[in-house]
Design goal:
alpha+beta
Length: 154
């Protein structure tokens, strides 16, 4: 299917690459169909920002990243009832993303660990939830990466 996007122009998206969020994103309940756009070569080598592109509104694409790339011990508690609409989840078919807040100053960029996007890769269903854990809405990416580098060097 052809999709118009603000950032990437018109692109081809395979139907099986469409992810449905029945309740939309927080603050955007009317946006329910998304696809994940990323550089496959770069993704294999290093953590990178991807785009959670709305298929309903070409102007909307959320920058996202796998939270474990920023915070390896990220393991939010989620009430099973909230995830029931996604189908049966297990370690192999559960994919987490968090939104990135880009800033003009790289050192100030953050991710929202409080409201991850949970995707069942088998059913292609997802939802954005607010976790009960004490994770911050603004977790500084630069500081986290610096700490990881320092630990790796020790």
């Amino acid at each position: 299917m052809k999709a118009k996007t603000r950032l990437f122009g018109e692109i081809d998206i395979e139907e099986e690459k469409i992810i449905t969020l029945e309740k939309g994103m927080i603050g955007f309940p009317f946006l329910q169909k998304f696809t994940l756009i990323f550089d496959e070569e770069k993704e294999k080598k290093t953590a990178s920002i991807m785009w959670f592109q709305s298929m309903d509104e070409p102007e909307v694409a959320f920058p996202v990243i796998n939270p474990n790339e920023i915070k390896p011990d990220y393991s939010p508690f989620v009430d099973d009832e909230m995830l029931m609409p996604l189908g049966s989840l297990n370690e192999e078919n559960t994919y987490l993303l968090v939104t990135v807040t880009a800033t003009p100053e790289v050192k100030q960029a953050t991710v929202n660990l409080k409201a991850p996007i949970v995707i069942n890769t088998d059913t292609k269903k997802g939802c954005q939830i607010i976790v009960e854990d004490d994770y911050p809405v603004k977790f500084n990416i630069y500081q986290a990466m610096q700490e990881r580098k320092k630990k790796a060097g020790e």
